Amino acid sequence: xxxxxxxxxxxxxxxxxxxxxxxxxxxxxxxxxxxxxxxxxxxxxxxxxxxxxxxxxxxxxxxxxxxxxxxxxxxxxxxxxxxxxxxxxxxxxxxxxxxxxxxxxxxxxxxxxxxxxxxxxxxxxxxxxxxxxxxxxxxxxxxxxxxxxxxxxxxxxxxxxxxxxxxxxxxxxxxxxxxxxxxxxxxxxxxxxxxxxxxxxxxxxxxxxxxxxxxxxxxxxxxxxxxxxxxxxxxx
Amino acid sequence: xxxxxxxxxxxxxxxxxxxxxxxxxxxxxxxxxxxxxxxxxxxxxxxxxxxxxxxxxxxxxxxxxxxxxxxxxxxxxxxxxxxxxxxxxxxxxxxxxxxxxxxxxxxxxxxxxxxxxxxxxxxxxxxxxxxxxxxxxxxxxxxxxxxxxxxxxxxxxxxxxxxxxxxxxxxxxxxxxxxxxxxxx
Lengths: 236, 185
Description:
Chain A is of the alpha+beta class. Chain A contains nine helices and eight strands.
């Protein structure tokens, strides 16, 4: 390439055209790539050529991509597990519709079944929610302490991604919209003081979930990230 | 789907709106898969490539700004650049190109916009002014991702001849499009 590129002042533009077309390889390619980062005028020329050539894009025929690609992509970008749970959690019809109760219950049973009994460190538990994701990467246990009107939360497993936070959600009934119980703190076991109104809502109808949220928690008042775990409350 | 709609979806993807991303995928994956398949000419590789292209679109959506590229062409460029990179890697002697370099930025500078308004000419019409074999070589480079060596072989000419063909063709295209920079050559 150098025999023709060093010819005169349009070396840069020529190189830009070659780079835009993808004709370069070897040393010429690495040289052009490094120039893309350091030489704004060159980068603009490459971009300009690419824009000009994009006029030919109509000639790329559309070919339906296999359905599995979207699934893999979702799993890769948004996590493998939460899609169904997330849809359920976010689905207004499911939360609000009476007929949906059975659907949620069925899902919850399948999620909570593999859960081990609450650890012995939580004696005299009455209302317990075991939040367990298949694979065990995320596992929370909450216990309502009626005497003190606090909810004890044990994060058995589960870490937020870098720069994000886990957030705990509560819904008094399967048909109610979830409300935030706050961002999950760093320590494994913590307590949330409940208002009398909230304490009164701690029944076996209650559902809890944990979602991955932006740092500081969801800004929308509802889960905005993937729901990692979701479960109902049981009297033990 | 209109360019404006795709542009709005990309704008939502910048905000990490997953529903928007999945909708964008539904509307554009066939085009991008077509690009990857045409360049890589291998279904399994094209499937991996189109997935990687969408990962890059998710991660780098903030690099799209309206102006130069149409939104779909910006996405096509990402799929095409990645596919060509992968193609060269397959052949060995590969140079790792970082992702940032492969994601086209803002589009043309003021100069290119001026060119467009001056002549209104497009590459597709300018290609018609080239000898057929030259135009075919340029198309082969852009649409099939052929290297100089492959183009030389397909057109049964020596490598240096192909380089000269491409160079003269690009100069002619540049003139046709109205750019002044390469006219002296």
